[in-house]
Every structure is written in C-alpha cells, then in structure tokens.
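Researcher: For the record, we're logging two predictions in this thread. I'll number them. Prediction 1 follows.
Model: Prediction 1, sequence and structure:
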Amino acid sequence: SLLVNVNGKLFEYTLKEEISPKRIQNVEQNDMLRKVTFDADVFFNILLPPIIFHAGYCLKKRHFFRNLGSVLTYAFLGTAVSCFVIGNLMYGVVRLMKMIGQLAD
C-alpha cells in the first residue's frame, strides 16, 4: 500500500492482484488497466524533475565544493569519451552503409 500527498489531497494505492496477460483483451478500452499502467513520460516529465531539483537545492555548498574536482573531471572526461565513442560509431555506420550500397557517394 502506498499513500501519496499531492497538494493536500491524499491518494492511496493498494495492490489488489496481478494482471495476467491472459485476462487482457484490449488495453485501450480497459479503463482500470489504463490507470494502473506505468507511463514513462509521466515519470520523466512530472515526477523526476522535482526529485532532482530537491536534491540539488538541499545540497550543502561545502559538500559540492569539496567534490568540485571530481565533478569537473567526470564532466569533461565523460563528455570527451562520449563524443569519441558516438563519433566513431557514426563513422562506422556511414562506412558500412557505403559498403552495402545504401548510401551514394
């Protein structure tokens, strides 16, 4: 059971039973199934940003500046490694497409 407080309104979610694939005929027409189905867009666009904002807002300045070197190292090295990996993958895909004739010169 999960109890959530949103703007002074309490919502309680309780797991009644598992929905088996045999019992699902049409997801779009099953109103209850639409309500309990996980929606990634809702999570990433509505639920996750306040969590990240709260974590950053409550971060103590001394903890941040104490780890500033490692934060910057991971930022620059991660960006550089990602750039090289994605660039090489794209180069390989284009070469492969030219070899199999999907891309004209």
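Researcher: Logged. Prediction 2.
Model: Prediction 2, sequence and structure:
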Amino acid sequence: WYQRRVRGLLTRLASQKNYPCLILDGGIGTSLNNMGLNEHDAWSAPRRMGEKYIRESVKRVHLDFLQSGVDILTTNTYDSEFDVEAFGTEQNFKKSQWIFENIEVANEAINEFVATRSSNFPRPLLAMSIGSFATVILGRAETANREHNENEDCSRCKGYGYKAYDIQSYFNARLADDILRHAVQCGVAVLAIETVGDFLEVQVICDVLKTKATLLAESGLCTWVTLTCLTEDTVDTGGSVTACIEELARCPQVTAVGVNCTEPHLVSPIVAKIKKVLQDSHAEDKLIVAYPNSGETYLSRQLREGETDHWKKQSIYKDWNFADAAVKWIDSGVNIIGGCCRITAKEIAELVARLEKL
C-alpha cells in the first residue's frame, strides 16, 4: 500500500502535464561553477549558508532550475562531514543543522517561484540529497567515469575497502530519525540516495531503510536509490549492476530505482536491466529514475601540464544532445528524468521545451 500511495502521488503530479514523466534538476556544483564559484567554494557551499554570497548563489541555482520547468528540486546536501561514530546522538543532530539550512534555502526558492505562478500551479516536490558512503573517503570522487590517481585503485573494491559496519554507521547518521522527521516538517517529500557505487553499500542501505519502515510509511516519504556505473554490467567498485537492482527491488522502502552520475550511453542498457529485474521480482510498482552526467570524464587527480579543467571531453559525445537522449530514455520507461554533473538549467529547459511539443 505504501508503494501504491507514493506512485499515486507522483502519477497525479505527472498527469497535470502533457508528458508522462517528472523532471528533476541537474548538477548544482556545475551550476555554481558557472556562476563564478571556484571548485572549493562550490563543494563547500552546503556548509556556508551563513555567507550571503554563497547562500544567494545556491538560491539562484535553485530558481534557475525551477524556471527551467522541474517538478522535483534537490537540496544541496549531497556531500557530508558526518561523524559516523556519533550517529543518532544529539551531537550529530546539531551537526546536521547545515542540512536544514539548505532545505530552507530550497524552500525559499520554491516559494518565490510558485508565487509567480497561477493558484492551481502544482508545487514542485523537494528531494533531500544523500550522497553515497564514498563522500566520506578523503580524496575520492564518487562518479564512476573518473580518472584518478593510481593509489586510489584500492577503493574500487568491495565496500570501498571498508566494512559493512562503517557504511551502516554513515547511513544511520544521514538517515537518523530526528533528521528525517525534521526534514519532513520542512517540506521534504523525497529521499534521494545517490551515486551509490557498491553492492555491499546497496545491501546496507536496504537494511537501514527497513529499520525506518514505520517512519517512512507514516510520513509518506518517497525514497530512491541510484547507482553510478562503470559499465552497463558493473557499478563503480566492480559489483554486479543486476545484483544491486535485485537487492533494491526486494526492499519495500525503496520506491524508485535508477542510475545517476554515469556516462549517458550506459543509461539505456541499465534501464532495460532495471525494467527486467522489477518485472521478474513483481516490483513493477517501483519507479525508474535516471539522471546521468554529460559523459565528460572527471579528473580526480592533480591537473597535468596543458590541462585547465577537471572535466575532460570525450570524442564520442562530441555531437551528443541531452534532450534528444532524454526523450529516448523516457520512451523506454523512465519515470523521473534529470541530469547530474555538467547538466545545467539550460539543458533541462531544452528537454522540457521538447516534451511540451510532443
């Protein structure tokens, strides 16, 4: 009944438009870079909401995405500095004030945007971004399509080289009951657990979500889990994409399954795997979500001579167009579509314009 209620909510929102899907936003970090913030300021922005310029920049990015036509806006809470040894404590709740500050900024943007629309305009949903365990591994980028230092190979192994307990401590911290309750009170409708690149991590996420079954059902929170994939068959650390999807399909608290921060050419075969697993598992009531990056390789290392940007273009994406690809993904069964790194409000607006003409 929980799955049906969540799907009904999202279906009603989608039915108010001319196309059968929900539009998600794109890369917040990229958008902040484009506004003039350097790499450090863009990544540290979530914990600097007390600085007027940073706060206004984040709010402007949210407004740009809202004006592009998104149905779901994501909070700028992906990264984390949680003390995984202090989960569930008052200390940890106090350390999560930056999350609530970012939810507040996102809500301010939504309120300003909705105030300019008609009274029957559907209010965009708010998703709270929850980055993968890899965000707490010092010096490690999470996206699967990265070029990293040789000594980082050790973290492309089961559990990123950590034990299940460590990963569980992290998600217990990020999904602490007090944090979730406060997030719901602040208007959060979706938990977006994203850029997950490991099978053990998927198992831990499902275990933690099961402990939140009552809270999630009572609050009506939707939860999606999206994978970052190295190939159409493997997630970032080498585990099986199919095995990850099967695990998520069996978890009643996961309302949508998908892929994010992955090269665009991998989306279609991965979506096909998701559809097959959901069908075989009798879990077709789960939604499918996709928000890949631009296909550019992230240079997760020091720049070399002649390199001026941490993103390197790949020749296979020379003539690639996000809107063209997204329309095909929607036709293949994707219910929620958006972008990740290097996808901005401009690309989202182009997609919405295309869909409105169909």
